[in-house]
Amino acid sequence: MQVMHGYHHVDGDIPLKHMTLVPKYKDIAELRFIKDDWAPHYSDLAQLTLEAAKDNERVVLSHATDKNDQRDHVIKKLIEGGASEGKFQLFNSQLIQEVCT
What is the CB-side half-sphere exposure of residue 20 using CA atoms within 13 A? Predict the structure, then answer.
């Protein structure tokens, strides 16, 4: 994303990819998958995005969210963290699976 389009990329899977290295991410993963509490995971993604925006003019967060509540939570946390509503966009890409019979 940086080389081709000039965006700093925030990988939405960072908490999962680093859960064996960062105790906070281990706790977040346990909450998400054992207690079905996804809010800390998505709050952290918003925080990582806001931190990236401090040093980069253009930032993209990529993550697959399958529930509107999760996307709304990220948007809410971005706004609470100081992002202007007109300064970010949400793109929803859906995977359509065709079943051949």
Answer: 1
| Tens digit of each residue's pLDDT (9 = 90 or more) over 36-60 | 999 999 999 999 999 999 999 889 8
Q: Where are the beta strands (DSSP E) in 1-101?
A: 8-11, 59-62
d(CA 17, CA 29): 10
Q: Exposure pattern of 82-92 as b/e (b: 16+ CB <10 Å)?
A: ebeeeebeeee
Taking the C-alpha atoms of residue 28 and residue 84, their distance in angstroms, rounded to an integer, is 27
Q: Residue type at 31?
A: L
Structure token pair of residue 31 = 């909450």
* Phi, psi torsion values for 86, nearest 5 degrees: -80, -5
Kindly report whether the global pTM for this prediction surpasses the value 0.90: no
Q: What is the largest CA-CA distance in the chain?
A: 51
